[in-house]
Design goal:
single chain, 154 residues, mainly beta, Jelly Rolls, five-stranded antiparallel β-sheet, four-stranded antiparallel β-sheet, 10% helix
């Protein structure tokens, strides 16, 4: 009987720890070659407009990726608005001292890079984020996945 209580307590703790993540989705890049015309669109819903959120870009690449950074244009469409708001980000993936900054296993590296800390979404409803690589090399080889992560700030 004690083991059942321990199991239920552990399950409750695990479930309550996961309430921090509001949303995360990443999409595969066709052929691991990110062409500038491949602009994945990710929809998510915000219901709590009184909270602050951290917005991350999620990226997975192989060890053969040639650059220490990636330039990405992120566009967002708010609920009920036909307009896109866009911004460019220079995301640091590696440096000369440490190498790759993301977490890695074998020759694959994952990055979660904060692009908008303490963001407040003013409208409730469905938001649409579109991501585009804007590097000089097109297509951009060795990029496996790209996505978005949104966490509620507590």
């Amino acid at each position: 009987m004690r083991s059942i209580y321990k199991y239920l307590l552990s399950l409750f703790i695990l479930v309550s720890c996961n309430t921090l993540d509001v949303f995360e989705k990443d999409l595969p890049v066709p052929g691991h070659r990110w062409e500038s015309n491949f602009q994945p669109s990710i929809e998510f819903e915000i219901n709590d407009t009184s909270s602050f959120y951290n917005v991350y870009i999620v990226l997975r690449h192989t060890n053969e990726y040639r650059y220490n950074n990636v330039w990405i244009k992120a566009s967002v469409k708010e609920p009920g608005s036909p307009d896109l708001k866009s911004r460019q980000y220079d995301l640091l993936l590696a440096n000369n001292n440490k190498g790759w900054l993301g977490s890695g296993m074998d020759d694959i590296f994952d990055h979660r890079i904060l692009i908008q800390p303490q963001t407040k979404f003013n409208k409730s409803g469905k938001y649409q984020f579109t991501l585009q690589q804007i590097m000089r090399e097109d297509p951009l080889p060795h990029v496996m996945n790209v996505g978005l992560r949104i966490e509620k700030v507590h």
